[in-house]
């Protein structure tokens, strides 16, 4: 599972954007 792929998935979700930001941090 690549971080970039996860980021793209989060952006697609929209409400998951917050979760993605937390994961990046």
Give keywords:
25 residues, mainly alpha
Describe the structure concisely for a colleague.
It is built from 2 helices and no strands. It has helices at residues 3-13, 17-24.
Description of the structure:
This protein is mostly helical and 25 residues long. It has one domain (1-25). It has 2 helices and no strands. Helix 1 runs antiparallel to helix 2 (17-24). The protein is flat. 0% of the residues are buried.
- Report the sheet with the most strands, covering strand number, pairing sense and barrel closure: none
Query: What is the total tally of β strands?
Result: 0
Tally of helical runs: 2
Globally, the shape reads flat
Query: DSSP strand (E) fraction?
Result: under 5%
Q: Order of helices and strands, N to C?
A: HH
Structural class: mainly alpha
Low-confidence blocks of residues: none
Number of domains: 1
**Distance between the ends:** 17 Å
Helix content: over 70%
Rg, nearest Å: 8 Å
- The overall pLDDT, averaged over residues, is 66
């Amino acid at each position: 599972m690549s971080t970039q792929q996860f980021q793209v998935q989060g952006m697609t979700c929209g409400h998951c954007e917050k979760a993605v930001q937390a994961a990046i941090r």
